[in-house]
Every structure is written in structure tokens, then in C-alpha cells.
Amino acid sequence: MPKYEDKIDLYDDYGKRIAKDVPLEALSPLRNKAIQKIASLTKRTIGVSLAGIQNALATGVIAGNIIQGKEIKVDLVKDAEKLAKDIKEMVQVVDGDDTVVNVIDEGKTLVIIVPQARTDAGIEYTTGFTTVAAAVTEAIIDRYKVPMYKANMVKAAVWGKYPQTVNFVGSNIKTILEVPQNNEGAGFALRNIMSNHVVALVKRNAMQGVALSAIFETCAAYEMGDAVGPFERQHLLSLAYQGMNANNIVYSLVKKNGKTGTVGTVIESLMERAIADGVIRVKEVLPSGYKVYTTDDLPLWNAYAAAGEVAAVMVNVGAARAAQGVPSTVLYYNDLLEHESGLPGVDYGRAEGVGVGMSFFSHSIYGGGGPGLFHGNHVVTRHAKGTLIPAVTAGNCLDGGTQFFSAEKTSGVFQKIFGGMPEFNTPLQIVGAEAKKIKNKI
Amino acid sequence: MAKYKRQFFPGTTTPAKNRRRYLDPKVKLKQLRDVPMDDVVRIMGHRAPGEAYKSIHPPITEANEPACPIRKLVTPIEGAAAGDRVRYIQFADSVYFAPISPYQRAWMYLSRYRGVDTGTLSGRQIIEMRERNLEQVAKELIDNETFDPALTGIRGATVHGHSCRLDEHGLMFDGWQRYLWDDKKKEVMYVKDQVALPLDKKIYVGKPASMSDLKKRTTIFRADGVDMRDDKEVTDFYLRIHTLRTLGGYRPFDVKGE
Amino acid sequence: MSTPTVDYANVPLPEVRVMTHRLLSAETTEKILNDIDVIHNLRQINMSGESLPRTINSGPAKGLANNHTERKVIHVNGHEVELHCLVGAFYIELSVTDEAEMDKTVDEIKAAFDRTIPDGYTIDVGRYSKYRPSLHDYRSA
């Protein structure tokens, strides 16, 4: 028996139905194997820049410093296949397990997925990084017979400045996760993924970006202790309606308002839909004629509002093809919605509050970077859990080339690393298909 | 699905009604003056009149956009399609019954325009858009009833003045004196652009409205005008939202029919 | 602490504060100052208002002359006074010995403002500025 009565229809990024009458729990990270695979691959997938290491060794420029006299001339890119074999032997647990070592980019980059046995045998998600970093260091020292007094250069070219620094500054090993010490709090690991990384992973497909960000945020909600007991349903509802295009709300709102609409007309369409679906109803009519709306299901209203928030960003920021409008759209969408309905905005005012701070931090008034650099681990964004970052990713996906910190610039490498993984490129289809598969088993 | 009609804002008082009017895109705002487009361009100072638009990225075509169904649904505004730079205009609104206040500007912009980035501060409101769209919007905002020559300032930097006493001609204070009172024509004229670079010609933006007229037009609640506490619908609304946010932040699943 | 150089230092003489409803032009400021300058028993007049910078102090026009029409030299009783702000407040210190003298002086000040300031003002009598050093004056840098 499912815990919750809610049933939803899942639609893909083109508004095509994937599954009908899916129980809400089929989207739970605790039940949906595709989401679990996304979480697992996120920590296990590591990129190695062989070209970067080769250059660092050849020039002595490592982790921001120059050390002359200890340069090492080796052609790692040419030997990529051989190194890949050496590394695989060290990373895998047994022959034929789920370890993957792929050479891409004509040898400049390796994509490595460490076997699950390694992450299962420990409790920290840095296992992927440390395993690969150690294996690469060792493979280079071994293959090129690097003498003892130069071996430290290899270590620094691979690991970066760590452990002098908390994180791996200057490392040539790439992961989309940050070190735990940089997380704002317990369970924040999956919130500490830059929006631009997600944009790169989904190749600028806005609906898929929203889905992937929502999946990361929802998994984090469980890890943070936010989605436990009676609070779980709310997180699953926002994942479904905002992230997974449940009942095609997001897509149809954008379709209706995409040509000529504004944030205001998205609110109009959302109110229409929420009333028609029986989520809200008129509580009283005031002397001016203003109708105060109420709901018997505040978490569901929150999910509708969150879906509208993403649609509003898609319409307004999409029309501008300029990501900078994300925070103000989030802020005023929620404010206008509250004034329209008499009900609280997304995450009960938190998304609106975050919009205020994020407007400031993402514009040059603070000298800061664009919205692409934001993630849920930021001091101004962390408060709206689950429902803000998907909207930020939507806006960043739709940028037409106005951002100094573009996804191509900050996260291009991850597009290559995660390029062939459907879990990260088309999560709507993959997670939706799994939900369909398990819908009768819940 | 029954067609939903937007209601915008509660309240029975004049400022509340004015807020609803400004917010409603179906209401065509009154045009009070006609400042030539070239002069609007001069006051903003981003390009010389007649100069071509600079671009920040190549023009957007269907062929060069990433495969994203949302991009197919959302038509870029003209300036975005052309790859224009994002530029701004910023208005300062006096607390002395200016026709509109910064916060309602944000609501109005997002209700009436597409492709907008906007930000509100205590006394000023910036709107950022692709350049050619910005110019159209800027002209509308200078020409229509949300602008008063005396109480609305076009100020890109150093906007101080919105909460200062007015000067003897009734103009909002500006330390950089971007605009002057022409005593002969009884009109306000701009002599500097929005960042105080001198203009090569005087640009007239018309006669200020009378205080009694402004009190009828404003969105501002003030103790010496309409006190917000005198509009029960409005105060009740804000108390309601505050309560519901608090309850939602505690145990949302327990909030039913509130 | 050094000994005060004049006998009225450290004495809280009464002060009249006038806030005008509008910020005054240089011309009006000159007029009102000349109007009250002739009143007896005034020890000093301080003015404040909204600052008018000499040059544009930020943004792309930084460094250019501001050319604010009201930032200029006015003449008060034959003395040149350089205005740095659009005046909106006067703090007039009274050198009076009893209440009757004070009331008489305040009435004369009121009469002058009534004549010169058509947009109105508020007037208060009290003490609004410092008349003796406090801890703040001894803080380092």
C-alpha cells in the first residue's frame, strides 16, 4: 500500500505522457532506482584531465605555484589508453565489475566510474575522488618510473594543493561535488552542485535541467532530515510538480504563455489551473470584490506554486534569453502570487526571501558572479529547500550568451564527462520510466 | 477550465485601487507627454541616437539554439533575438506622493512586460532589458502617468533624494541636479543624462502635477494621505500572509482551510 | 583637559531649531540669513541640509564639475558664505540671560521666517548641538 493517496501523471520535456496514475512514492529517492542511480553516479563519476596533468608536470605550474627544476616531460595524452588500463586495474575490485574507465577527447580526458563496492565499503562520498586521484598518481609514477624526489610533483599535479588547503585547489581530477568541509550543513552535499554544472549535464535543455536540479535537491532534503515523517509528502509533491512535470502543469503553463505572456499571465494561468483542480477555493469575498483563497492541502498548493515559479522563469527569463532575471522573477512571481491569492508563496515565503538576497548577490552591485554560479549550498539560497534551485537552473539553461560565467566556461568539462549518461542528460525520461515500472509495486 | 480573472491587490482605498490599475496589463495607462525617442535615448546615455545597437552574442535563430523544447515555446523578445546588450534605466520615486513607488514598479513591470530583470531598493527601481526593448519601455514609462517630472527622477547612480524634502519649486532633491526648473515654461528640463554626464541639449519632460492630483493618483500609503491602517482589507491581507507563512513554515500539513 | 578659553564654553545656551518644509534655494537662504542676522542676542547660526558636491563623485561622470545652480557664494551682512548644501535646517544659538529675553528673541526669529519662508517651517527651542566635549571627542583616530 502506498503511504500517500496522491497519484500523478508524468510527462516528458515535450509534454508527452510517460506514465499515468503513478503513486507519488514512485518518485521517492528511497524507492525509485533511477534516482538512486543518479545519486550513486554523481559521487562515483570522476573526470581526469590528463592534458592538465601533463601540462602541469611539463611546466612545473601546479596548484597555482611554479616549482622550477622539477619538471617532468611525459606524454600522458598519447599514453592515455595504457594509463587507463593501469588505472582500471587499481580502481576495480574484481575483473568485470561495474568499474568504467573511458578515454575521451583524444586522450586528453579520462572518465572514470569507481565501482559501487568501494562507496559501499565506506561512508563518505569523497571515495570516488580519492580513489581515482590515488590511482592516477600511482599509475604515472609507475609507468614513467618517476624518481622519489620528483614524485611529489605528480601528487600535486593530480591532487592539487590539498592537504594544505581544505578542498582540492588546482586539482586535475574533476567531480561535480565539493568536499564535505565546504557544505553549509549536514546533508548538503547534493545541494552543493553549481547550477551551471546541471546546465552542462542536460545540455541546456531547461525542462531536464529543472528535473535534475529538483532530484538533487530532493535527495538532499532526505539527507538533511527535511523529508522525514509528515514532511516527506511536501518534498515529493514539489519534486513531482515542479521537477518532473507532473500532470504537465509546467509545460502547459509555458506553452500557454510562451509567445506573448508575462510573469503576470503565468500567475493567471496557474490560478485557473489550481481552482479547476480543486487545490484552492474562495474563502471569502471582501467588500472591494477581492477574493481570499484558501486550501485544505497547503503542501499541494506549495507544489503548484513551485511549478508556476519555474514556468514564470521560463517565460520571463526565456523571453529575455538572459539568465540575470532569475532572482527577480522568483521574488516578484511569489509576491504577485501572494497578492493574487491570499495564500503564501513557494516554500511559505522562503523562495521570495531568497529572491531578494540572490538579486543582490548575483548582480554586479556586489561584484559577484552570475546566477550560474549559484547552488543550494549558498548562504542566500539554502533556505528555500528543493524549490529554488530548479528555477535557477531553468533560467541558466535559457541564457542566450549574456553571462560572463557561462555553463560552457565553468562546467564544459562535465558536459564531456557526463555526456553519454542518459540519467544526467534526460532524467525526466529515465526517472519517469522507472516510476512507471514500479507504480504497481508500491 | 473556467477563465480566471486576475484581482491583483486587495483594498478599498485610492492607493489600493491605483495599484490594481497600474498592475493590470489590460488597463492602458494614460499618456501625459510625448518625449521624443531620441531624447529618451540621450537621457539613458547607453548609445547616441541613431547609433547601431551593439550586441553581446550572435543573433538567435532556430538553427543555433540548443535543443530545448522550452526555447521553442518561448519567443525571445526582439532585442534578445538580435543579441542586444542588456542595459538599464532607473527611476527614483519621491515619498511625497509620487505617482508610483519602487516596489509597485516591480509588480507592474513583471505584469506588463516580458524579458525583464528588475530590482527594488528603498527609493529607486532599476529595470534591465535588452537594449531596444528597454528603449521602448523607457519611453512608455517616461510618457505615461507613472511618471511625474517633479517627483520621479531618472537616475542611474547617486539616487539620493526620494526621502528628502522637496525644493522650493516642488522638485525632488538631486545633489547632481540632472534636471532643472524652467520658470518661464513652468516645466522640468533634463540637462544631464541619468549618470550626470552633461546633455548637449535641454530635454523637456513637462509640467509637474498638482499635489491634489497626485494624491488621487499615488500608490503610496502615508499617514498624511491614506494611512494603510485605514484600509482594513490591506492590513488584514498582510497579517494573513504573515500568519500563513509562519504556520506553513512550522507544520504545513496541519494548515487546512485557514 | 585644558581650561576653556571663554567663559560661556560648556554652558548649554538655548538653541532655536528651524526646519523648513522645503529645501531652500541659495537666494532664499541668503535672504533669511540677512533677515535674522540683525536680531540681537544671537551667538551663532549653523545650517544643514542636503549635500551638494563640487564635482560628480561617482559613476561614469566622476570628476566632472557638478555645476549645481545652488552651490554658490552668498552674502550675509557683507560677509561671503560658501554654500555646500541645499539648506533645510537652522540651529540658532541664543546668548540670552533670562526667559523673557529668550522669548523676545524667538519671536523676532519667527517673524523673520514668517516674512521670508512662504512654504512653512517648524520651530523648536531647546538644545540640539553639543556644547561641551564628550567621550566621542577623545577617541583615537
Features:
heterotrimer, B: 258 residues, Lambda Exonuclease, Chain A, 4-stranded antiparallel sheet, 3-stranded antiparallel sheet, 8 helices, 7 strands, 30% helix, C: 141 residues, alpha+beta, Alpha-Beta Plaits, 2 helices, 6 strands, 31% strand
How does this model look, in words?
The complex is a heterotrimer of chains A (442), B (258) and C (141). Chain A folds into two domains: 45-182, Alpha-Beta Plaits, CATH 3.30.70; 188-417, Methyl-coenzyme M reductase, alpha/beta subunit, C-terminal (Methyl-coenzyme M Reductase, Chain B, domain 2, Up-down Bundle). In chain A, 49% of the residues lie in helices and 10% in strands. Chain A has helices at residues 33-44, 50-59, 80-91, 116-120, 127-143, 148-159, 195-201, 206-224, 232-243, 249-257, 263-276, 298-320, 326-341, 350-361, 389-397, 407-417, 422-425, 427-438; strands at 7-11, 17-23, 45-49, 61-62, 65-66, 100-104, 109-113, 173-174, 280-285, 291-295. In chain A, the strands form four sheets. A four-stranded antiparallel sheet of chain A has the order 6-7-3-8, with helices on both faces. A two-stranded antiparallel ribbon of chain A has the order 1-2. Chain A is elongated, with a radius of gyration of 23 Å. The relative contact order of chain A is 0.15. Chain B is of the alpha+beta class. Chain B has two domains: 14-221, Methyl-coenzyme M reductase, gamma subunit (Lambda Exonuclease, Chain A, Alpha-Beta Complex); 227-258. Chain B has helices spanning 14-23, 37-44, 69-73, 78-82, 102-112, 131-143, 211-217, 232-250; strands at 86-93, 117-120, 124-130, 152-154, 179-182, 187-192, 198-206. Chain B has a four-stranded antiparallel sheet with strand order 2-3-1-4. A three-stranded antiparallel sheet of chain B has the order 5-6-7, with helices on one face. The longest helix of chain B has 19 residues, at 232-250. Chain B is flat and about 65 Å long. In chain C, a hairpin with a 2-residue loop joins strand 3 (73-76) and strand 4 (79-82). In chain C, helix 1 runs antiparallel to helix 2. Chains in contact: A-B, B-C. Chains A and B meet through helix 10, helix 11, strand 10, helix 12 and helix 13 of A and helix 3, helix 5, strand 2, strand 3 and helix 8 of B.
